[in-house]
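Narrative summary of target 7.
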Amino acid sequence: MGARRFRTALAGLAALVVLAVSGCGDSADTASPQPGGSSSGVTGSVTVFAAASLTESFTTIGKDFEAANPGVKVTFSFAGSSALATQINQGAPADVFASAAPANMKTVTDAGNGDGSPTTFVKNQLVIAVPKGNPDGVTGLTDLTTPDAKVALCAEQVPCGAAAKKALTAANVKLTPVTLEQDVKGALSKVKLGEVDAALVYRTDAKASTADVDGIEFPESAGAINDYPITVLKSAPNKTGAQAFIAYVLSDAGKSVLIQAGFQAP
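Modeled conformation, tokenized:
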């Protein structure tokens, strides 16, 4: 082979090597993530303080969020919003706060413990919870004013209690409850246990307990609808996780769970 022909062949071979290497690089760049991997960058645990009325829907959302972010663990603390706000302001470690009313959220943000502006993600409305089958034939608030009627309400500092007070005022109805509970689940449990004849609870809580109670709608509740705000907390140990969790709550997947539970769009 002549020197010129040898150099030409060698140059062609070098070009083929370059093309082969480039092709391998493109393949590596476009390779799919390994099975079970997460592209969100979320790791570790996310601690969420949430209103008691969010128990069922947030538990579902938490499991869905974990499934979408393998290796991430969501831990919830459910209670009355006022109690949770107090705990946060006293230094309880948490990443996210979801309140059943703006007033309790304001307690946290006014203390400088929020990170950014809270977002309203759902609304909720009161119903009258009565034992399954509505044995007393309750149709409205005035039916709860009879002398022998035993009624449970939430305490006024709790969002469901504040909403109940507003609804009762709008209806010009005065009730003397036999118990004031610190969260909506407590009021509902009194009906389930047969300790009271009725309780004013959120529509979502009655819907989650249809095996035990009926939820009676009443018109005055339309003037006492609660907005639910959510925010990342300033001292959040996992802010990236907190932001991702809130984004999931606001996503179509999160909204679907909440609407199915009986919440209303904001």
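The longest helix spans residues 3-29.
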